[in-house]
Design a protein that fits this description.
about 160 residues, mainly alpha, globular
């Protein structure tokens, strides 16, 4: 009985986490261009010293920071959905394909929302989002393939 309650609690936790991540992703898309630009500028000022250590100065732009934000938000979502599936269902090839199509749908809707916020949608951003999502999925999938403390996690 306790195991079932714990499993239900974790299922609720993952569900809330995924919904919060979607709210962050789509909430950013609902922002007017000027507000989004201010936020990007702030993040750029904070991140540029770190990025300049890792990359040539000419590559460190607000455009790069915006693309990294897309990649990261969707990567987190990909990881969350993959963890959810691994713990509560399975990670069959069909389920992985379904998870990827979910990521594509989220990315497509993300760019569609930008039409209504006065910002232009970009096909390139759908690809960045999907690449981030798939990276998050793969990181989780690969990490589940290796034993933890001598035990294999069912996947």
């Amino acid at each position: 009985m306790k195991h079932t309650n714990k499993k239900k609690g974790m299922k609720k936790f993952f569900t809330v986490l995924i919904l919060l991540t979607l709210a962050v992703i789509w909430g950013h898309s609902m922002m007017p261009g000027d507000v989004s630009g201010e936020e990007s500028g702030f993040v750029f000022r904070v991140m540029s010293p770190v990025l300049k250590v890792l990359l040539p100065d000419a590559w460190v732009t607000e455009h790069l920071v915006r693309k990294l934000a897309h990649f990261t938000e969707h990567g987190v979502l990909g990881a969350e959905l993959t963890l959810y599936a691994a713990f509560y269902k399975d990670l069959s090839k069909r389920r992985i394909v379904n998870i990827i199509f979910s990521g594509l749908a989220v990315a497509f809707l993300d760019e569609t929302i930008q039409i209504f916020s006065g910002r232009g949608p970009a096909i390139a951003d759908v690809w960045v989002d999907l690449f981030g999502f798939t990276t998050g999925l793969l990181i989780v999938r690969l990490s589940l393939a290796f034993p933890l403390r001598g035990k294999q996690v069912p996947a």
